[in-house]
Design brief:
- 42% of the residues lie in helices and 9% in strands.
- With 130 residues, the protein is mainly alpha-helical.
- It folds into 2 domains: 71 residues, no CATH class; 30 residues, no CATH class.
- Strands 1-2 form a two-stranded parallel sheet.
- Helix 2 links the parallel strand 1 and strand 2.
């Protein structure tokens, strides 16, 4: 789908630069105009760090699979790029980077959610103000 969009539109691609899977960014010119790599290394499932992630998963609302891809550097890159450019649409083709993305009021309404004084609205307001 993104490859087809790229034929007639400018596509910006923000992605993890994982040394274990370099082919995505290496081939990004096939489907984007601009690529923004974010360094990220997923810990091996046989490491003590993964055992710690499993333990955190017992008390976290975010699944372990999501925690493995949680990245402040990714959030910063998304904020940077979206503040520098105006986009007609934003696509997140991998769910986990979107876990903590604050939704704007318009995005909430598209999902059929009426903003109230919840944490989501506060995050949405902060996102609208940026």
């Amino acid at each position: 789908m993104v490859r087809q969009l790229h034929k007639n539109h400018e596509v910006h691609y923000i992605a993890f630069d994982d040394p274990a899977n370099p082919q995505g960014l290496r081939r990004s010119s096939e489907y984007c105009s601009y690529a923004y790599p974010v360094a990220h290394k997923v810990v091996p499932k046989t490491s003590p760090a993964f055992a710690l992630q499993l333990a955190q998963g017992l008390v976290s609302p975010i699944p372990v699979a999501g925690m493995r891809y949680e990245s402040e550097a990714m959030r910063q890159m998304i904020r940077k790029v979206t503040s520098e450019y105006k986009f007609d649409a934003k696509i997140c083709d991998f769910l986990f980077p979107a876990i903590k993305k604050p939704l704007t009021r318009g995005e909430l309404k598209k999902l059929g959610i009426t903003p109230d004084t919840s944490e989501t609205e506060k995050a949405s307001k902060a996102s609208d103000d940026e």
